[in-house]
Amino acid sequence: MRLLHRETDEEKVARNREALFDLHAAALAWLEEYTGIPYPFGKFDFVAIPSFQYNGME
Question: Quick check: pTM over 0.90?
Answer without folding.
Answer: no
